[in-house]
Amino acid sequence: MKQVKNLDTSLSFELFGIKFKNPVWTASGCFSYGLEVAENLYDISKLGAVVVKGLSYKPRAGNPPQRIVETPCGMLNSIGLQNPGVEYFAKNILPKLREYDTVIIANVFGEDEEEYLKVAEFLDKTDGVHALELNVSCPNVKKGGIAFGSDPDTLYSLVSKLKQITSKPLLVKLSPNITNILDTATACVEAKADGLVLINTLLGMAIDVEKEEPILAMKTGGLSGPAILPIAVRMIYQVYEKYGASVPIIGVGGITTAEDALQHILAGAVAVQIGTANFYDPYAPLKVIEGLEKHLERKGYKHFLEVVGKAHKLKLK
Amino acid sequence: MYIDEKAKILENKHISGKTWLLRLEAPKIASTVKPAQFVMIKATEDFQYDPLLRRAFAVADVKDKELLIFYDVYGKGTKSITTKKAGEEIYILGALGKKLFPENYDYYLLVGGGIGFAGLSLFMKYLKNIGKPFKAIYGVRRKEQLSMLDWIKENGFENDVIIYTEDGSFGEKGLVTKDLKKFIIGKKNISLAVCGPKKMMKAVVEEVKDLKIPVYLSLESKMACGFGICIGCVIKNIKENTYQRVCYEGPVFNAEEINIEDF
Q1: Architecture category of domain B3-96 in CATH
Q2: Is the Cβ pair B234, A40 closer than 8 Å?
Q3: A225 contacts in B (CB within 8 Å)?
Q4: What is the largest CA-CA distance in chain B?
Q5: Is A138 a catalytic residue?
Q6: How does DSSP classify residue A44?
Q7: Chain A: nearest CA to B60, how far in angstroms?
Q8: B231 vs A32: CB contact, 8 Å cut-off?
Q9: Which CATH number does B107-262 carry?
Q10: How far is CA B4 from CA A258, A291, B7, in A?
């Protein structure tokens, strides 16, 4: 694993040879391809990175509506990975996104191993994409629909093959919908993944009691939002406990504020992604950046990397 | 640009039935709102996450620094907005919506059902201001639901709006579709601007089908963000066979292009 280095400000750092202004990124599926925010709300150059919405090789229409439903302190979504395909992205969206001075990470998925490989191969040759994030929460069509991310052997095979065809840093976004997160985390580490992203959404369902049927057209959806914060923190903690700083962990799940982000960081995350909070507080990522700077100053830290994994201090001593 | 503005509540009162009126001082957004645009209102304080998401509301009127919103109380989100008092502040994001009613027609027939009339009132005001001929139809079940009646009188639209109640308790008795064709026939380069419940919009589209005139629907949908990033509020564009975002490719759609069953 490549080392993390301090750079010139309290939040800037280097990971996999890429310079990040700060450890606050936007999460895939919660920021579209970045342009809606860049053109209507704020300068996305302020972000550490933008992880774009999942890209497949072929365009995907996505699921029929109703696609979202609010739940207590969270929401369920079943967007169905609607996307215009990686070629369209590279030709029509990426050039505009590259006008902003931020790191661009492409989220990659496929219906089968071949499609994953085709997307990764294409992106490996695409200038302007700095790293890849693997979405393994989608069903493997050739293996009876079981998610890639729920079977360690399938995951090992997929990550190993992808590592052979891409020279770009490869992060794997793990699904929390399994019994032991260490099983899939270990498979990815053994397959030489450059980093782990913890966690994707949790599978859930909401039922309309008047109509007496599931609210989402696809019945189930991924739970996100503040409700899942403690689950993400726990899983990051578990993985960091096993691998320490040798495996970079990117935390995602339930972050709205700098305090939430700090929980991820203290558990072991070297960067965080803001997802659902973008929906109800469009400026949340910028507020988290500001809040982190203030926290470090108040606590007398020179750099946020001093805090990474610090919640483990008692045990590790 | 979209603005996330802390707006001061000037008035938040129950009108009748499940309808409330919200008057806000939001100078930045007020200076940018166009007819058919909407705002996303955050019902909770900072660090309160239930209800989590903002709610979308049509802007019914704009006066200087003020926005006027009419809303029906359906669930957690709207219910929590009713607890807000004059003098308190709430976050509103706006003005949202990219595709609005086209302006290239010579005559407009506006058809609003229930609270949906609040999605047309600003357009009606605009048409009057620029001197373009129009007529508006406002339909509800019974007169208690005519939440915009006072507004119509106060703003001098009595002669422009024809009111229909299903039970005949006010205005004409019947549905908005009852005399629809009568208002259309003989008008050149006319278009319909419609906002209301799905059933009503479907009935309007069906009623005027054989006349082959353009019908524009201003839609609402369950949305998490309101500005294009969640891809949750989609409706199917049957011409392109793609899902389009109501918040970003809408909220106004040509009825011919969409699958009305979707929302």
Answers
A1: Beta Barrel (2.40)
A2: no
A3: 49, 52
A4: 57
A5: yes
A6: G
A7: 23
A8: yes
A9: 3.40.50.80
A10: 20, 19, 9
Two tokens at B63?
Answer: 């006066």
pLDDT at B106 over 70: yes
Residue B169: Cβ-neighbour burial (10 angstroms; 0-12, 13-18, 19+): middle
**What ipTM score was computed for the predicted complex, to two decimals?**
0.95
- Please give the share of chain A, as a percent, with pLDDT higher than 90: 91
Query: Helices A258-267 and A284-299 meet at what angle, rounded to 10?
Result: 60
Region of A144 (left: φ > 0; alpha: ψ -120 to 50; beta: rest) is: left
Distance CA A264, CA A181 (A): 16
Query: CB contact, 8 Å: A160 with chain B?
Result: no
A26-62: per-residue pLDDT in tens? 999 999 999 999 999 999 999 999 999 999 999 999 9
pTM of the entire structure? Answer: 0.96
In the block, residue with structure tokens 């899983």: A235
* Interface membership of A279 toward B (CB under 8 Å): yes
The domain of A287 spans 4-66+80-203+225-313
Phi, psi dihedral angles at B79 (to 5 degrees) = -65, -40
Per the listing, tokens 């914060």 go with A229
Say whether A282 and B42 touch across the interface (CB within 8 A): no
Q: Do B227 and A226 touch (CB under 8 A)?
A: no
Domain count, chain A: 1
Q: What is the DSSP letter of B99?
A: B
